[in-house]
From TrEMBL:
The chain crosses the membrane at residues 46-65, 317-335, 347-366, 400-421, 442-465. One of its GO terms (molecular function) is phosphoric diester hydrolase activity. Residues 1-33 are annotated as: Disordered. Residues 20-30 have a biased composition (Polar residues). GO terms for biological process: lipid metabolic process. Keywords: Membrane, Transmembrane, Transmembrane helix. It comes from Streptomyces qinglanensis. This is Uncharacterized protein. Residues 1-17 have a biased composition (Basic and acidic residues). It comes from the Bacteria.
Length: 766
């Protein structure tokens, strides 16, 4: 038999490292890679694999930190995820326990605290808070990355002061411009004029342009006492006759000049300059040093300094060292691996897998030990603030560990793929038998099957899971509500809906505008219609004031002279100069919202300061006539179901507090409905006693807000809580033997009145 050619090969060509038959020594000269089997290589390879795994862990960990705790976008993501800016207004600043914190902040603003808190979202809107917060985040992350040597976190208060100036211009612009005889207000000139008057008073001169006013005897005594309180005691007796005499004839200017040198003295000369310097002193140059206040409040920044040392080490040394050592380790594993190149991937792949698993374990350990990493909130903090901080910490930790898990997954997946490739010896026999064209066709067929399965799954699986392919009708967001009559269902009603922060009303009673209120679940709007106030309207309001009759006339004349009326129909809260939005434009917004939400029924209850004819004209101009529902002439008649009203597309019900027509759809609310009192000064005084409309009506309005010198954010958060609303609604329903229909609230975005209304509707039967 012929011998196999391999059998005839001399030993010297085998290259197997076995002893040569001629010399008896290992055959290393014929095998260039024989050094891979050297003892030192076998010792160093495991060490290189361990180093490679550790370097993968270091790179994944540092990369995760760089993209999270060292990146400003990470913090804004956490703040947005927890709705931190909304919760700041809706939970923290309205909590009674937050008042000391609020006062500490507001002490830096040169305005009374009550003015700021009443107009909080106007003076300090969420957009401004976000901007200020982002600035601080940038400072902290720069410090942690080692780009700055000291932690300097300060808040620029100029945006807040700018918002205050803007607010003043909106509501004082007309007054100042008319007094100056200009089309547009010149505020610097007005301030200069005030400074000149102060200079006169400081010098004991009677300031010009101050009118005389008629004062009652009691007012003369009270004002004299107030002015003399700033005068040294030894000089009060000599000044009293002069001050009381001047005030007795209404000469306020002379009375002010008498006490001016004692009250103002030489300070008036500096005027605006001193005021500016005082503002800079209060705000420490126009910026609030946060670090100083944190340290003084017991919240130390030492942990940030420790974290900075760690991050500088990680970025400055660990990361570049891991890159260098990892590259060398992988190169060594590759060069010292088996002769077959695919097999060389095995050690590299398992090292990456091990590094990924170590990374995942490290972040799991961080999550497990997180309670020990966070500090506790100071006991002086209000509970709502402590809860917000805890939620932010929890979300930050979850985001960090999720990012770490994602970073760990990459080396695990890549390493597993490399390791799997290292075990492939040859192409499968079936694949070897296919031509190139056949393998291409098989791949195309598999791709088509996969694509079809994905498309069919996305299309049909959701419909199958829902149990029905047809849409179910919803009425005011609920299928069950379609069977409830209009007078059986409950609705969230926003009190003074037009008086909003968004529309820059003075002392607003809601935050979002009317469209936002509808978006957030309000289905009844309590609004006030007016024309711009005239002198006789001002006089009418002054009748309930403490001013003497002669002074009322004087004030009316001054207002008529300084603030002329603006034409048109408006939605105002009492006085239009304190905030006003156009009636017709607002009705058009409501029309647009109803068109976008065809399954919703909305009610307007109008405190009508304009005539029924004017109201009818406004609704016609807004294009709402086809949506208006006309109630039955008989107030005792049953109302249709919400489903029927939606089917007929008559989805807007409009009531008036005073008028009754002439339009058939414009009915007097108290013919059809009854209410509770509305002038509650505290939550514990809320009652269900009959008020306007008496009892026994088909519609029931529960006034559910606190009026104590205006709306109260703090009380709104308490009374709008779901449990509080449900408890009072059930008490009132028992007292009136009728379900509550309209739950009228201030600041509807606080608390959870909408959830309470949902619960009421869920328990009602057609």
């Amino acid at each position: 038999m012929p011998r196999n050619t391999h059998d005839t090969a001399p030993d010297t060509e085998r290259g197997d490292g076995q002893p040569d038959s001629a010399t008896g020594r290992p055959n290393t000269a014929a095998q260039p890679g024989a050094w891979r089997r050297a003892r030192w290589v076998r010792v160093v390879r495991p060490l290189a694999a361990v180093l490679a795994a550790l370097c993968v862990t270091a790179l994944a960990t540092v990369g995760t930190l760089r993209n999270t705790v060292l990146d400003r976008g990470y913090y804004q993501h956490v703040l947005d995820e927890e709705r931190a800016y909304d919760r700041l207004y809706d939970e923290v600043l309205v909590a009674p326990e937050a008042q000391p914190v609020t006062r500490s902040l507001l002490a830096r603003l040169p305005v009374p605290e009550s003015v700021v808190t009443a107009n909080l979202k106007t003076v300090l809107p969420p957009a401004t808070v976000r901007e200020l917060t982002d600035e601080q985040i940038a400072e902290v992350t720069s410090y942690l990355r080692g780009e700055k040597d000291t932690l300097s976190v300060s808040v620029d208060l100029s945006p807040v002061l700018a918002n205050m100036d803007k607010l003043a211009e909106v509501y004082l612009g007309g007054l100042v411009s008319q007094a100056q005889g200009r089309d547009k207000a010149d505020f610097p000139a007005a301030v200069k004029r005030i400074d000149a008057a102060l200079d006169d008073v400081a010098a004991g001169r009677r300031p010009a342009d101050l009118p005389t006013v008629d004062l009652s005897d009691r007012a003369v005594r009270d004002i004299s006492k107030l002015l003399l309180s700033a005068v040294p005691e030894d000089q009060r007796t000599s000044l009293r006759p002069q001050i009381e005499g001047a005030l007795g004839v209404g000469d306020v200017a002379t009375a002010l000049a008498a006490v001016g040198p004692h009250v103002i003295g030489g300070r008036a000369g500096a005027g605006a300059d001193e005021g500016e310097q005082e503002l800079l002193r209060i705000t420490e140059g126009g910026r609030w040093d946060v670090v100083k206040d944190l340290d003084s409040g017991g919240v130390y920044t030492g942990p940030l300094e420790e974290a900075r040392g760690f991050t500088r080490l990680a970025l400055g040394w660990v990361y570049p060292l891991a890159v260098a050592v990892g590259a060398l380790s992988v190169a060594f594993l590759w060069l010292t691996g088996p002769r077959r190149r695919l097999r060389r991937l095995r050690a590299v792949g398992w090292s990456m897998v091990a590094g990924g698993l170590l990374t995942a374990g490290l972040f799991r350990l961080v999550q497990w030990k997180a309670d020990g990493l966070w500090g506790t909130a100071p006991g002086s903090w209000p509970p709502s603030l402590a809860v917000l901080v805890e939620d932010l910490e929890s979300t930050a930790l979850q985001t960090l560990t999720a990012a770490g898990a994602s970073a760990a997954l990459t080396p695990v997946a890549v390493g597993a793929l490399l390791a799997a490739l290292s075990y492939v010896r040859r192409r499968p026999r079936a694949a070897q038998s296919l031509s190139t064209r056949g393998r291409t066709g098989m791949l195309a067929g598999l791709s088509a099957v996969t694509t079809t399965a994905v498309v069919l799954g996305v299309t049909f699986v959701p419909a199958a899971a829902s149990g029905s392919g047809s849409e179910q009708a919803l009425c005011n967001g609920s299928a069950r509500a379609c069977d409830l009559r209009y007078d059986q269902a409950a609705y969230v009603a926003t009190h003074n809906s037009m008086s909003t922060t968004a529309d820059r009303f003075i002392s607003p009673l809601q935050d979002g505008d009317i469209t936002a209120q509808l978006d957030n679940g309000a289905r009844a709007l309590l609004v006030d219609t007016h024309t711009w106030e005239r002198p006789d309207q001002i006089a009418e309001r002054l009748k309930v004031s403490e001013f003497a009759p002669e002074m009322r006339d004087k004030i009316t004349g001054l207002i008529d002279e300084a603030t002329p009326t603006e034409p048109g129909l408006w939605l105002c809260h009492a006085v239009c100069r304190g905030g006003a939005i156009p009636l017709v434009d607002t009705l058009r917004d409501i029309r647009a919202w109803l068109d976008e939400h065809p399954g919703e029924v909305v009610t307007l209850i109008v405190q009508d300061g304009i005539t029924g004819k004017q109201t009818e004209s406004a609704f016609r101009k807004a294009g709402l006539e086809d949506l208006l529902f006309t109630p039955d002439d008989d107030p005792k008649a049953e109302w249709p179901t919400l489903g029927k009203m939606i089917e007929d597309d008559k989805r807007l019900v409009v009531f008036a507090e005073h008028a009754d027509g002439p339009a058939p759809w414009y009915r007097n609310f108290y013919r059809y409905g009854m209410e509770t009192p509305y002038a509650f000064s505290s939550p514990e005084k809320m009652s269900c006693a009959p008020n306007r409309g008496g009892t026994g009506k088909r519609l029931f309005l529960m006034n559910h807000f606190i009026t104590s010198g205006g709306g109260s954010r703090i009380d709104a958060r308490e009374v709008n809580a779901k449990g509080f609303v449900l408890d009072r609604a059930r008490r009132c329903e028992a007292a009136r033997d009728h379900p509550v229909n309209f739950v009228a609230v201030d600041f509807a975005n606080l608390g959870d009145a909408a959830a309470a209304v949902d619960t009421l509707n869920a328990g009602r039967r057609p």
